[in-house]
Write a structure and sequence with these properties.
The complex is a heterodimer. By secondary structure, chain A is an all-alpha fold. Chain A has helices spanning 7-10, 24-60, 65-70, 79-85, 90-119, 126-133, 135-138, 141-151, 158-165, 180-205, 209-217, 222-233, 235-250, 254-259, 271-280, 287-315. Chain A has a single domain (89-315), classed as MetI-like (MetI-like fold, Orthogonal Bundle), CATH 1.10.3720. Chain A contains 16 helices and no strands. By secondary structure, chain B is an alpha/beta fold. Classes of the chains: A mainly alpha, B alpha/beta.
């Protein structure tokens, strides 16, 4: 999209000065072009720009339930942001979000890449097995999260039963402040592996076998082929997989909410569950601070999106 | 993106303007008050029309007694009822949004601790405006709907918490339920049960309002007040629960239990006690074991005040005030002394009036213990707390979670909670 920017300068100088005589047919075509643009523009404005604007407005006003209904909330600038940033929950929530995202991405990507390489070999039943790996992705999140919560239950969960069978003591997966964040991270990794598998697998398919043959002729070992052929050629796909994974993981809310509600005692609260708790998880909603946390989350995702575009441009200077 | 079109900037502005207009209309249209079909003459209160009812009972469908009752009341008032069941946790925000957009339901059935919040928001009419008669309602039940000298609805029914026990498990452990009179005897009974190889007690200490609801009988039973969470009494209640977990008398899973999952643990048949509500009575009959019910004991004996549960029927503020007359008929139909028995039976609640409560316990002696519990119960937003309650409740459930999970010791947890509550309710 940014590559079209220099286009106008390449135009003949004559089209740039003053009005150019254009036939009525040309004008009608231009109107038609705008006509085609209107639906998508209206859609984007109504369903993306307006909600974003409302969310921003919500975060800049002091809403009480009364002023929410009457619509006369006073403008308070960045007071909600200040309140959120100085809240005792903020730093732990930010830290949990970072740990949750980084650990999830690292494992999802490594496992996904490993499985993609494995399935790239084509062996009997490989297609069936690959399809089975997609199951976590296809299940509704409420199903997978509830199932994980059952399995990790301290007293009746199958995981503690298995630990007991091999002689290890039970772990309070969801109810101990030391474990709850890891438990939800494990569940999230399981859910995210198929996405990485699918995208990286198709990335592998796109690498020409001739490159591998050439490498083999040059005497490259399996590891060298992976290190010097597969990884560099997979880089564009890897980058987009990681970016999408990052955006998905930053906003993960349902798994954590269903499994721990962000608890116990805030030990698995991330920015997204905190935002929900502020806005909806209490008898009296705090819309302003809730919207502020949501906007901080959007800003973080946006920052990484821009970073991605920048890296992409540097890699690909065409 | 669009940098290649340099000459077309006026047209671009026009196109964007059109689109803005469309979006603006979307926003504005949804914000215009839309009284339901009020412009049709057939809609005047006398001549019928459609009246909307929102309730937090999504589990009841068209074939249920509750929905049939609503339809009957509608027919009597000469109107059609359009009923929507919402999830109880969504209903507050839905009601606030609807009020903001100017299209609230005609009748709103809403959880009692939320009434003061909605009243504060100016969403609900007072009984002075809507002419509802609340004179027969027990004072401890109507309290949750009163603030600033006004009453904002009628309790449709009440429920509360008590202790269910499993007779077989207690017999096996050699516990006589008559000896369970206070916290010390209850803990002793739990220890005997554990020694006999069974499990003690299960409850719900989840990090939501449900957790506070379950903790309150113990908190109030210690003599503590919600205005001072870190009193010695309050800390003793948290310590009671924490010690049960430490000694293995209650499972660690209570930290994440909802009241439903806690009930499932009890229904498994291994637990001696479960703290749960009136609404589980029907399920208790299906467990296949003999059960009994005792009130939650206070620390030094006697019955602890449990929080009242159950909903209020209220009439939201409408632009067209002529609608109140019919809405009032509908609410009266649901809550009048004559019809109340049908309503509370349909919802498996205890009636909010003494007269119907007496009839309930004579018709069904099993309900007697619940009637007593409801009489001793206390509204969460009572004691003049009103909209302050939610701001105290959140730190409270947080403190319980922190103590049970070992993140903080009980004293520290309650001190921190009091600090948080004090700054939130300033």
């Amino acid at each position: 999209m940014t590559r079209t920017a220099p286009a106008p300068t390449r135009r003949p100088a004559s089209t740039r000065g003053g009005p150019v005589r254009q036939g009525p047919g040309h004008r009608r075509a231009a109107w038609a072009a705008w006509g085609f643009l209107v639906p998508i523009t209206a859609y984007l404005l109504a369903f993306y720009a307006y909600p974003m604007y409302r969310n921003l407005e919500l975060s800049l006003r002091h809403y009480t339930v009364r002023s929410f209904v009457q619509g006369d909330a006073p403008f308070t600038g960045f007071a909600n942001y200040l309140k959120v940033l100085t809240d005792a929950t903020f730093v732990p929530a930010l830290w949990h979000t970072v740990v949750f995202t980084v650990v999830s991405l690292a494992f999802q990507f490594t496992l996904g890449l490993g499985l993609a390489l494995f399935f790239a070999r084509h062996f009997p039943l490989s297609a069936t097995l690959r399809a089975l790996f997609l199951v976590p992705w296809l299940l509704p999140l409420i199903v997978s999260a509830s199932t994980w919560a059952w399995m990790l239950n301290s007293d009746s969960g199958v995981i503690n039963a298995a630990l007991g069978a091999i002689g290890a003591g039970p772990v309070n997966w969801l109810t101990s402040p030391d474990w709850s964040l890891w438990s939800v991270t494990i569940a999230n990794i399981w859910i995210g592996v198929p996405f990485n598998l699918v995208v990286l697998y198709s990335g592998l398919q796109a690498i020409s076998p001739a490159v591998y043959e050439a490498a083999a002729l040059d005497g490259a070992t399996g590891w060298q082929r992976f290190r010097h052929v597969t990884l560099p050629l997979l880089r564009p796909v890897s980058a987009i997989t990681l970016l999408l994974g990052l955006v998905y993981t930053l906003k993960v809310f349902d798994i954590i909410w269903i499994m721990t509600k962000g608890g116990p005692s805030g030990s698995s609260t991330t920015l997204s569950t905190w935002s929900y708790r502020l806005g909806f998880g209490n008898l009296v909603p705090a819309f302003g601070p809730g919207a502020a946390v949501g906007n901080i989350l959007i800003a973080i995702a946006l920052a990484f999106g821009l970073l991605y575009i920048r890296l992409q441009r540097r890699q690909d200077p065409s | 993106m669009s940098a290649s079109t340099t000459a077309g900037s006026p047209r671009r502005t026009l196109g964007a303007g059109l689109a803005l207009l469309a979006a603006g209309c979307l926003a504005a249209c949804s914000a215009t008050p839309t009284p339901q079909a009020a412009d049709t003459p057939a809609d005047t209160p006398a001549g019928g029309g459609t009246y909307t009812v929102w309730d937090p009972y999504p589990q009841y469908d068209k074939t249920s007694d509750w929905v049939k009752l609503l339809d009957t009341c509608g027919t009597q008032a000469g109107v059609t009822i359009e009923r929507t069941g919402h999830d109880t946790s969504d209903l507050t925000n839905k009601a606030l949004l609807a009020a903001q957009q100017g299209n609230p339901p005609d009748v709103l059935v809403v959880d009692n601790p939320v009434v003061s919040t909605l009243a504060e928001a100016g969403v609900l009419t007072t009984t002075a405006e809507n002419k509802l008669d609340t004179s027969a309602i027990s004072p401890n039940l109507i309290a949750a709907g009163q603030s600033g000298g006004n009453t904002y609805g009628v309790p449709i029914g009440a429920n509360t918490l008590a202790l269910y026990y499993n007779k077989a498990v207690l017999d096996q452990a050699g516990v006589d339920i008559a000896t369970v009179k206070d916290w010390a005897t209850l803990t002793a009974a739990l220890e005997k049960v554990k020694a006999a190889g069974k499990k003690g007690i299960t409850f719900s200490a989840i990090g939501t309002e449900e957790g506070s609801f379950q903790f309150l009988p113990w908190f109030w039973g210690s003599g503590a007040q919600l205005t001072k969470l870190d009193s010695a009494e309050g800390v003793s209640a948290v310590t009671l629960w924490t010690d049960w977990l430490k000694k293995g008398l209650a499972p660690n899973s209570v930290i994440n239990n909802t009241q439903t999952t806690s009930w499932q643990e009890f229904a498994g048949g291994d637990y001696a006690f479960a703290e749960n509500g009136t609404w589980q009575l029907a399920n208790a009959k299906e467990t296949g074991f003999e059960y009994g019910i005792i009130p939650v004991p206070a620390r030094d004996g006697g019955t602890a005040a449990a929080p009242t549960g159950g909903e209020f029927v209220s009439i939201p503020v409408q632009q067209d005030t002529a609608r109140y007359a019919t809405s009032q008929k509908l609410v009266t139909c649901l809550t009048s002394t004559d019809n109340s028995l049908t309503t509370v039976t349909a919802l498996s609640y205890i009636a909010p009036t003494e007269q119907v409560q007496t009839r309930q316990s004579t018709d069904n002696p099993e309900l007697a213990v619940w009637v007593e519990a409801v009489k001793a119960a206390k509204g969460r937003t009572g004691d003049d707390l009103g909209t302050k309650y939610p701001k105290i409740s959140e730190p409270l459930w947080g403190a319980v979670q922190a103590a049970l999970s070992g993140a903080k010791d009980p004293q520290q947890a309650m001190t921190d909670a009091q600090t948080a509550a004090a700054s939130a309710t300033q």
